[in-house]
Amino acid sequence: MANRVEGVSEKLMSCALEEFLSNGYTGASLRTISENAGTTPRSVYTRYGDKEGLFAELVEQSASEIKEMFESYNSGYHLRSVEEQKRLFHDESFDQEYDGYIQTILDYIYDHWNEFRLLICCSEGTRFAYFLDEVVDIIEKYTLLYIENTGNDVITSGRAKPQLIHLLCSSFVHGFFEIVRHDMEKADAAQYIQQLQRFFTCGWDDLFNPEN
Q1: H-type helices in 122-158, by residue range?
Q2: Selecting from 1.10.10.60, 3.30.70.920, 1.10.357.10, 3.40.50.300, what CATH number does the domain 1-49 have?
């Protein structure tokens, strides 16, 4: 096996990031990336297997870590007692806890901004094109568990079908990540997310507790 030249991988990452951000995954050229990095396409195949492998090197860790953040927080809520889950839905101290969780998500996104630009805006043609759907699956799973565990009659009463639960979870997640698609400044994003949360909280409350 030929020895790898020091610094080539770092240069490839930098040039790949620029090329993918400029042209998206499908429009990006491995030849352009390798030429800009001062090497050959063979270097890409040797290190990353193919173009998607190169793209994955840039985004996979961030995608996995933020999905774990969503999973960890929601599973933690699910592990609380049923009575606590019901009470926290209208608890001001919990609102502060939830705001802290959302702020952690925002901080992570803005600390890894380029990676999320790739995931949200440039991943068509790769397995990462389904990133948002995977986040939706997490939120939907725990929303349905909340309904089941607390005995809420939102579905059994006919107020909502499972398809509506899916659509609402999807709308929230896709709306959340619009901050990336629209290249928002962090302060503007924080305000937008706060308004989005308020809108969905009122909507969920109306579905779950229509008599309140």
Answers
A1: 131-150
A2: 1.10.10.60
